[in-house]
Task: structure prediction
Amino acid sequence: MMLWDGSPHRWFGPDHPPCCLMAAIDDGTGKLLAAPFFPFEGYSGYLWLLKEMVKKYGIPMIIYQDRHGALHRKDNHWSLEEQLAGRQEPTQVGLALEALGVQSISALSPEAKGKVKKLFTILQDRVGAEPRLRGIVTMEEANGFLQSTFLKAFNRRFAVRPRESQKAWREVSKNLDLHRIISFRYAATVGKDDTVRLGGLILDIP
Result:
């Protein structure tokens, strides 16, 4: 099982605008699996985390998460298609998890996510200080620092060996198109002029 969350904070000091550190942690080992900065907590960050983890480690069995709007539908609107199907469509992240066969469990209280909250307490102490000491004040620079240096150092310090050596991550089948599965997906109708209208876009189909 893995846990993930986002933490909005003034990560680069009071003189810089806030942004959100997204992070995923392995429940069994405490290993920090991935951690990028994004402007805010939302679909893009969670889909990036999911794709990064799947490419590096495989497909997790269970993801434990909160009830953020990017992860859990909060509206009471049911389309006609949803009424006929007897269920609401999941979010964009939920669609990707379903396609990968990942079970998601939503925490019902902040206390239920104690491990990931503790993680962000540690990260606010370390990630908040180390980039500033290196003169890093942008998300792009900070993401480079996280990937090249910080994750390895963090895991050497805090990750522990698993009790069982058997790998719990499922291997990714060669038939799975991760770029298609872990992406934004929308239903649209092809017009008689061989175009698809999506929002303000008109897409020509060759």
